[in-house]
Design brief:
alpha/beta, Rossmann fold, about 35% helix, about 10% strand, globular
Length: about 280
């Protein structure tokens, strides 16, 4: 049965979760926790809302120290911090632009100062700006999308890896658009394809150090990026065109991320898990 969402739109990227109706499901009581990440520190970009928040909450429940980065959505970051404290965590929140290498270096340094290690890096921050014609994609938009969506992954990994030890893990957020190629998201799809290649190359580069690198490629997931990207009528139909006929929830992606971050995925590296509502893609 197709799921209908209330029509809604937001005027700024990456969007505010606090304004969404219904609220995304960033936590699920049914998911079992066996403290898989106890004693480890996780650093998450885009951790204030959507998939990033769901990963942060799941990681806290699994026993991890949580450091999360966000751009400027203070209300969402407040909600994330409150929920993390409800789980008994003492999170570190870091406000800044991951498209700038200096901030990424600072985020890693402050996480190390607070918790003493960076054992798991989750690169989740992203933005998208739909355009029906490639001619409408300005040089500024192209650079901004690449800076947020792939430069930041490189910068965060570059500085985190200086201190990562054997047994650490990196999980990158790719997308089904890397495999299907969305005609209205040419620049965004390009960054997601780059993330898949980055994941494979980096895995080969650091595997001998005992560090694993994987990716998750979500399909349509109900996050703030959706009402911040599309008009009301398109939001209302969001997710109906996948085989499951509904958008996924952030916690459903977080489950795959936390699996890849844990020792349960100890023999997996350089791979991509597809969490996309049943869309069959190559790769």
């Amino acid at each position: 049965m197709k799921q209908q969402l209330p029509p809604q739109h937001q005027d700024s990227q990456p969007g505010s979760q606090a304004e969404m109706k219904p609220q995304p499901e960033d936590y699920c009581e049914r998911l079992h926790s066996d403290r898989r990440l106890s004693g480890r520190t996780i650093l998450i970009t885009g951790g204030d809302s959507g998939i990033g928040r769901a990963v942060a909450l799941g990681a806290a429940r699994e026993g991890a120290n949580v450091s999360f980065v966000y751009l400027n959505e203070d209300r969402d970051a407040d909600d994330t911090e409150r929920k993390l404290r409800d789980f008994g965590a003492e999170p570190l929140r870091l406000r800044g632009d991951v498209g700038e290498e200096a901030f990424c270096e600072t985020a890693v340094a402050k996480t190390l100062e607070r918790f003493g290690s960076v054992d798991i890096l989750v690169n989740d921050a992203g933005e998208q700006h739909p355009q029906e014609d490639i001619g409408n994609i300005s040089a500024d938009q192209l650079e901004r999308t690449f800076r947020t969506n792939i430069f930041s992954f490189f910068f965060m990994a570059k500085h985190a890896l200086k201190r990562m030890r054997s047994g650490s893990a990196i999980v990158n957020m790719a997308s089904v658009t890397a495999y299907q190629g969305n005609p209205n998201l040419v620049d965004y799809s390009s960054t997601k394809g780059a993330i898949v290649s980055f994941t494979r190359a980096l895995s080969n580069a650091v595997l001998k150090r005992g560090i694993r690198v994987n990716a998750v490629a979500p399909g349509p997931i109900w996050t703030p990026l959706i009402p911040a990207s599309y008009p009301e009528e398109k939001v209302a139909r969001f997710g109906q065109d996948v085989p499951m006929q509904r958008p996924g929830q952030p916690y459903e992606v977080a489950a795959a991320v936390l699996f890849l971050a844990s020792d349960q995925a100890s023999f997996i590296s350089g791979q991509t898990i597809h969490v996309n509502g049943g869309e069959v893609v190559n790769g």
